[in-house]
Specification:
By secondary structure, the protein is of the alpha/beta class. The chain is 43% helix and 14% strand. The chain contains seven helices and six strands. A six-stranded parallel beta sheet has the order 3-4-2-1-5-6, sandwiched between helices. It starts with 14 loop residues before the first strand and ends in a 9-residue tail after the last helix.
Length: 241
């Protein structure tokens, strides 16, 4: 079913992607350093993963660090990378035990070598898990993703392994970081901002969009239940009518 008609509800989104916004504002409102907001945001991620599994969501993508975030003050970037290391070391084993598969998308070359190793280990450990797939968008930017895809395809054309006349939408999709991940049914952004901020621009062509005022550290299981409920009442036409 791709549309709610005659009172029927859509199924829960197969793929939910979240722009987790508001960590800094949450901390500032409480007179706390920004890293406190990021730590609280990590707790919200745990709650969201639990709720996503229970609600029947199969893919959950979280926008954890964008390509633009490298422009932030060095001390904040260092704090975020430290938090990421802790997450990859402490949380992945529990996710693995719960049957969760972990995928990381983004430009890994900009990450520290030890973080790259932790990512490879996490993906390898969880690769065969049958449950929810958690996709972490890390050092990710949609324009950079598409630029790298174009470069890869041009290299294949120059090598003679790709006929340029065969390049279509499916070929481009296969060249993206998300080649093995379905396009998101719903993209959610917290904190009241209403923009995609260079997130999954190609993949979101027919995604439903939802913007809520809740700051990400305050987001919990009840919030996700409401988001899914609101999504299920929508009608998805895909330009057909």
């Amino acid at each position: 079913m791709i549309a709610a008609a005659g009172g029927d509800l859509l199924p829960p989104p197969n793929h939910l992607a979240i722009i987790m916004d508001g960590n800094g504002r949450w901390a500032s409102a409480r007179g706390l350093p920004r890293i406190a907001g990021h730590r609280k945001g990590a707790e919200a991620v745990r709650a969201t993963i639990r709720a996503a599994e229970r609600l029947g969501i199969r893919y959950l993508t979280i926008y954890s660090f964008s390509s633009e975030n490298w422009k932030r003050p060095a001390d904040e970037v260092d704090d975020l990378m430290g938090l990421l290391r802790l997450y990859l070391k402490r949380e992945i084993k529990e996710l693995h035990q719960n049957g969760v598969r972990v995928r990381v998308i983004g430009n890994r070359a900009r990450l520290a070598k030890d973080i790259q190793t932790l990512i490879v280990d996490a993906e390898a450990m969880t690769a065969s898990n049958p449950g929810l797939t958690v996709v972490i968008a890390l050092s990710y930017g949609a324009r950079e993703e598409m630029t790298l895809a174009v470069r890869d395809m041009l290299a294949e054309v120059q090598q003679g392994s790709l006929d340029p006349t065969t390049i279509d939408e499916a070929a481009i999709s296969r060249a993206l970081f998300t080649h093995d991940i379905p396009d998101p049914d719903l993209i959610l952004r917290t904190s009241g901002e209403q923009r995609l901020s260079n997130f999954l621009l190609w993949q979101s062509a027919y995604s439903e969009l939802m913007f809520i005022d809740t700051l990400w550290p305050d987001f919990g299981e009840a919030d996700l239940e409401q988001v899914v409920s609101d999504y299920r009442k929508r009608e998805r036409r895909y330009g057909g009518r």
